[in-house]
Amino acid sequence: MKHNLLIVLTTLLLLSCNKTTKVNDEVLVRNTNELQNAITQAQPGSTIILANGIWKDAKIKFYGLGTKDAPITLKAETPGEVFIEGQSFLHLGGTHLNVESLYFRNGYSPKSSIIKYMINKDSIANHTRVTNTVIEGFTKPNRSTNDRWVEFYGKHNQLDHCYISGKSNDGETIRVFFTGNEHINNHHQIVNNYFGPRPRKGGPRAETIRVGDSKTRFTPGYVNVSNNYFEACNGEVEIISDKTNYNSFTNNIFYKCEGSLVLRHSNYATVDSNIFIGGDDSDFYGGIRVVNTGHWITNNYFYKIRGEQFRSPLAIMNGIPMTPLNRYKQVVDVVVANNTWIDCKSPFQIGVGQNLASVDVLPKSEIRSAPPIRTTIANNLIYNTKSDKAPLINHDDMSGILFKNNVLDNNANVFSEFNVFQNETIKMKKINNWLYVPETNNKVLDSVFNGYDFERIKNDLFGSSRNDNNKVGAINQLAAAENFKIDKSQYGPDWFSTEIDTTQPNVLKASSNPGELSKLIQQAQPGGIIELTDTEYSVSTSLKIDKDITLRANGENKVEIIYKGKAHTPLFEMHPKGNLKLQNINITGQGNQLTFAPLAENMASAYNLFIEDCSIDNFNYILKASKGSFADSINFKKTVIKNSKNGFVLAADEKGDYNAEMVTFNNCEFNTINQNLIHFYRGGYDESTIGGVLTLSNNLFTNCGKTEKSGLLIKTPGIINVDISDNTFKNNNVKLVALLWGEKNNHHKNNTLINSGEIIVEDQQKLEILY
Amino acid sequence: MKHNLLIVLTTLLLLSCNKTTKVNDEVLVRNTNELQNAITQAQPGSTIILANGIWKDAKIKFYGLGTKDAPITLKAETPGEVFIEGQSFLHLGGTHLNVESLYFRNGYSPKSSIIKYMINKDSIANHTRVTNTVIEGFTKPNRSTNDRWVEFYGKHNQLDHCYISGKSNDGETIRVFFTGNEHINNHHQIVNNYFGPRPRKGGPRAETIRVGDSKTRFTPGYVNVSNNYFEACNGEVEIISDKTNYNSFTNNIFYKCEGSLVLRHSNYATVDSNIFIGGDDSDFYGGIRVVNTGHWITNNYFYKIRGEQFRSPLAIMNGIPMTPLNRYKQVVDVVVANNTWIDCKSPFQIGVGQNLASVDVLPKSEIRSAPPIRTTIANNLIYNTKSDKAPLINHDDMSGILFKNNVLDNNANVFSEFNVFQNETIKMKKINNWLYVPETNNKVLDSVFNGYDFERIKNDLFGSSRNDNNKVGAINQLAAAENFKIDKSQYGPDWFSTEIDTTQPNVLKASSNPGELSKLIQQAQPGGIIELTDTEYSVSTSLKIDKDITLRANGENKVEIIYKGKAHTPLFEMHPKGNLKLQNINITGQGNQLTFAPLAENMASAYNLFIEDCSIDNFNYILKASKGSFADSINFKKTVIKNSKNGFVLAADEKGDYNAEMVTFNNCEFNTINQNLIHFYRGGYDESTIGGVLTLSNNLFTNCGKTEKSGLLIKTPGIINVDISDNTFKNNNVKLVALLWGEKNNHHKNNTLINSGEIIVEDQQKLEILY
Questions:
Q1: Which letter does DSSP use for residue B505 in this model?
Q2: What CA–CA distance (Å, rounded) separates B316 from B310?
């Protein structure tokens, strides 16, 4: 049945018998031919050195049979000076290989992965290591083309001290595969890496690490994810999605990541001594979300995690009774002990995902009606410098949870509901701007958990023993905590710095001479500012925006830009990473063009629009998204938009994806926009992604919707977060201003509706299910 | 939430602090009061001795806190002379307890279990042991009342050297529970026990051992079931039902058990070095049935296992795509290596349970369309002294299985279909009547499974090392195998023998004097024979049959029995264990009575009827089952049944249960039975039980069914095995003779139908699903 595999394996084994001599040869290679030769000739102990410089289109298949004592090494001549660019990848097969100090940039892999611990099913990697390597922005040009950057197969492979950032296309950054006996129980190590920013993707399949899939929820993994630094890993609601058993997530720092560590299809995970740092600047920073069986969540520290529901600091989910394999299993036998939450919003949310209200619009196999059982939440500490209205939110039935010895200092505001907390006053010492440690603290109650294995919790967050004077919360010893600071040098390559120069932005002056504006935009450095010094500018071809750039009037008076380009072309053509700010500019079109539009394809990265104190007049579309394009932020303030056929159309994508994350209009005026005033769309139902945010506040809408066939002024089908507040709608010829989805986070208040239809909230909406 | 538990536990722990002195006291107790006192006063090292004799209604709650070095012991004064009878049980709580040498008989537990490793949720047993103990026929009076005989809770508990037999009521003999963190990872030991006969129950919930349930399919068990002897454990299709992970089943002997070791909801089971001995006398002896993920099935030996489908020697099942938790998961990552099958029928059945043909009558979540994948079947040996038509049956797609180095000696009849076997001639040595060992043998192919962990298979079935000259099949060394014999002394208590005296049956002579027949039946020993010496007997009250007894004519001429009892009473009242044989007797009723009927309730055990060369005339019912009653065998040969309103009604049960296992009519005549000629019924659909067997061969049916409202002569709804062959149906006024269920094992052939309707086969029948 699988004869080919066997023949090849047998051959390889025979070859390997001739290769047991250990050598210490080093060979410097200068091109891929030399490299391939060196790989073929490598023996245990060989070192292959890639010469400094740019290696373009390097399709490296590194197969070798090293030994534990004499691995085969592939490394850069000088760390940081070997650049892998173009269409390149590095796939590994064999055993005991090392790869060191490469830098992937300016390109992408033409395959399903950049680094893959398998060449083909007959050449799987075991005991191999990739270290000290950078992958930066090596993202596929088409955002909707799927790949992973690192694919783990085999057993005992390692990725350490790497820096990885900027994946903006579809697919997890790292995935561990479990496609057979030869890949399970694999003990892979993902340690001491620096996972730099991953932008919001708008939809699922954008985790930073995914371990397995729903079909592997019975499979033992023993994958270890430890001592990594995650910064702004905002791809989707799951930073890490754990889908096999017995994996460990310990001593990681999650710094301002808009997602959670999610125990999605896994069981018996160890989640210990992680630090989650959030802030006031986002409501999306998440903590730990719990599904399934037997997890131990201990010694973790959460600071200003303000996410809600699926992104709660601690989200313990409801399950589906007798769930299908790919859906939510009831939480059973979970232990949450000795964790600390500081200034988090509703740190405990229990029964998250309970959706009995949707029983009429969802199939029975989607109804999460099984609350957590046989779960223990004990010896935790919650401390708030400002009191929290609801430190615990109960979505269903908590009688299956044993709460014991959880101490709450809610800044004098006692929370006694559910009788789950001991309300106390704790004296805290602030060690730095996110770390608070109790100076006095309650002892833990171990003894009552006899038989529950609480003796497993040997040390605290910073490694201090819990043998003596064991305390509630994540930190047992003030002294060790006082010495703690984040040491970025332990994450990522030793030769690579993530520090960014913060220089003053360059300011360029543009006159209205034909072509000058376009030329200056092209010449400007990222972050540059162009001041328009004349009063009126005529533009005849699209302006290409492919970096962070600001256009603003020179003085206080507004400047006029008149767009005379062809029909169907945009004034501002948004390219990947285009980040456009306009201030004090009046824009006028010819009625048949677009004000803003992303490229029709290859929008590898997101674009942004920040428009303030402007006006836009006489276009066919103000903004029209293309399929696969994604705007992270579209933000209009104090801007007038008028006399156009269509407004903002962000409705080109499908199947759970959507075209923009944060869409905000504040203090704007919309006048005589005939149709599609705002059409913001997400197709299909995938409840684990929670995106699309539309905020309309203090705007005036007049005389819009004349030719709107749907009869609906603001169309937001499938968008999860909509807030329409304090707006005035006047003389808009539509049946409805908006049709909101009550069960999701759709709200309206204080709007004035004059001769404009009404706003209706439908609590439940029926959508196509995507999985 | 669970404060009571905590208070009690805390109290117990405080008490335990005062009890650390180790003592060596022994106390003899004579009644339950003294026993209770002794338990209360016991300290580490205490021994409580139960005085010889009968302990009636002993409700023992044995709580104590022993230590590893000084356990607390409860034991019989003399092993085998302490009988626990009446309504009794033994529940254990605390730690390090021993129970030795008790004998449970003549009674039943009034609770859900006899032996339970928990007194209540605050008093769970850990590190306790029950040894050298017998539970024999301690079965609840009502067969449909559910209990278990041994319930495991807590951790590290043991049941060893016990003899357990005769459970005939609903519920597994042993169940291991996993109802919380305090019961998982429990490492319970079930070792060196002798599991004696468990009769066919007729429906599910009659396993001998069940480990967990469908809700625990993610839970690690580490339960060890080793070195046990299972004899005629025929309760249902599953001898053992494994439903948690990482359990071991090793070195057990399954002797003539009509079921299988079933990996039902478990994963990563170790099934090594077990012996399955069947025979030609039953088609129900089973082997190993495989569902789920990651099992290793190695070194097992199968002799004359002739079960089919679910009971195949090796049944690898199809799964349901994205199955609900309580249904069939696809087989993945399973290894079947180094096993031996001797004279088995179709030893490999792959894709068992594939039911795509039922797609119209079953919900989608019942369709097993996912064939096994990533599974390895290698280095096995199949040897047949008579050639087998199909050593492998493929029910679906086998491309996901790697077959390698499986050797077949099919008695010169090459089987090359599917290309999965190496056909060879093996020289075998017959060691005893079931053990065949190769004198020469092929080597295994380890090397091709590099990375597959085949080095795990260190020894063979009899413990010989596989390091040198490793061979295919379960046995690596002829020498060690030659010395093997089953040593029954290592199973069960040392003081208890399972050998049965085989004495000649007693023959009594009964004249027709009033009351004499009834009296002799009462007086006869089990196995006794009563010969009727006169020609005509008048019986006025029911004859009570509560043992194995034969009634037969003295000579060659038939004897007449005329039943003159009240209406609605049976001539033969069948009691539990009633086993009635009639030979050469003509029976006549008054038209309003029953010939045979079990008790209306408390039919704790099955009854049997063997009727040969008789005639039965003029009754209301020939046989009418009561709810909860069960006949193991109903066997009529060369018997005339006539002039009665109803025939055989076995239709009192519901929900997957049924009233008889083997119903056989051979060479009989049915004449003028007006309705319910045969009504044999099983309600509801539970595809994992495969019971109800109706065999009709060479019978003559005349003039029956006159008042049959259903229009159906032979009614068998839900019965899985029906064979109607070589019968003649003449002038029966019905629409249909039978309506058979084609998808199940329902067949008909060579029947002659004259003016009697027809036999129809419906391939698919729609039934209520029970789970």
A1: P
A2: 9
Q: Tell me which residue in A5, A219, A322 faces B324 most closely, judged by beta carbons.
A: A322
Gap between the Cα atoms of A667 and A670, Å rounded: 10
| E strand spans, A348-484 | 348-352, 375-378, 381-383, 392-394, 401-404, 407-409, 422-423, 428-430, 436-438
Closest alpha carbon within chain A to B186: A451
Could you report the per-residue pLDDT of A630-643, keeping only the tens digit for each?
A: 999 999 999 999 99
Question: In b/e form, how buried is each residue of B501-524, taking b as 16+ CB within 10 angstroms?
Answer: eeeeeeebebebeeebbbebbeeb
Structure confidence by residue, pLDDT tens digits, A230-241:
999 999 999 999
At A762, list the tokens. Answer: 């439908």
Residue A322: closest C-alpha in chain B: B325
Contact A262/A287 with Cβ under 8 angstroms?
A: no
Closest residue by Cα to residue A756 from A699, A680, A704: A704
Q: Which residues of B touch A219 (CB under 8 A)?
A: 293-294, 333
Residue B268 contacts A where some CB pair is shorter than 8 Å: yes
Residues of A in contact with B420 (CB under 8 A): 1
Which architecture, in CATH terms, is A23-490? Answer: 3 Solenoid (2.160)
Residues in contact with B766: Cβ distance below 8 Å, sequence separation at least 6, in sequence order: B361
CB A696 within 8 A of CB A725: yes
CA distance B510 to A670: 110
Count of other CB atoms within 10 angstroms of residue B567: 11
- pTM (predicted TM-score): 0.84
Q: Residue A574 has which token pair? A: 């948004």
| Residue B211 exposure: Cα atoms within 13 Å on the Cβ side | 35
Q: Domain map of chain A by residue range?
A: 23-490
The pLDDT confidence band at residue A219, using thresholds 50, 70 and 90, is very high
Q: Contact B253/B277 with Cβ under 8 angstroms?
A: yes
B100 conformational bin, left if phi > 0, alpha if psi -120 to 50, beta if neither: beta
Q: What is the count of residue pairs from A and B with beta carbons less than 8 Å apart?
A: 118
User: What are the φ/ψ torsions at residue A7 (nearest 5 degrees)?
Assistant: -60, -45
Q: Alpha-carbon distance A318 to A306, whole Å?
A: 20
pLDDT at position A2:
40
- C-beta atoms of A294 and B10 within 8 A: no
Report the alpha-carbon distance of residue B598 to residue B542 in Å, rounded: 11
Could you please report the per-residue DSSP string of A659-675?
A: SEEEEEEES-EEEEEEE
Residue B757, SS3 per DSSP? coil
Q: What is the mean pLDDT of residues B456-474?
A: 92
What span, in angstroms and rounded, lies between the C-alpha atoms of B203 and B213?
A: 17
What residues 217-236 of chain A have any CB closer than 8 A to a CB of chain B?
217-220
Residue A404 at interface with chain B, using a CB cutoff of 8 Å: yes
Of A220, A293, A447, the CB nearest to B219: A293
Site of tokens 């063979």:
B460
Q: Give φ, ψ of A365 to 5 degrees.
A: -75, 5
> Could you tell me the two tokens for B326?
């309580």
pLDDT tens across A711-750, in order? 999 999 889 899 999 999 999 999 999 999 888 889 999 9
H/E run at residue B9: helix B3-17
Query: How many distinct helices (H) and strands (E) make up chain A?
Result: 4, 70
Which residues 407-426 of A are in CB contact (within 8 Å) with B? 420
Task: State whether the Cα torsion A159-A160-A166-A172 is positive or negative.
Answer: positive
Chain B residues inside the 8 Å CB shell of A394: none
| Chain-chain contact of B220 with A447 (C-beta, under 8 angstroms) | no
B192-220 residue pLDDT tens: 999 999 999 888 899 999 999 988 989 99
Residue B463 is which amino acid? G
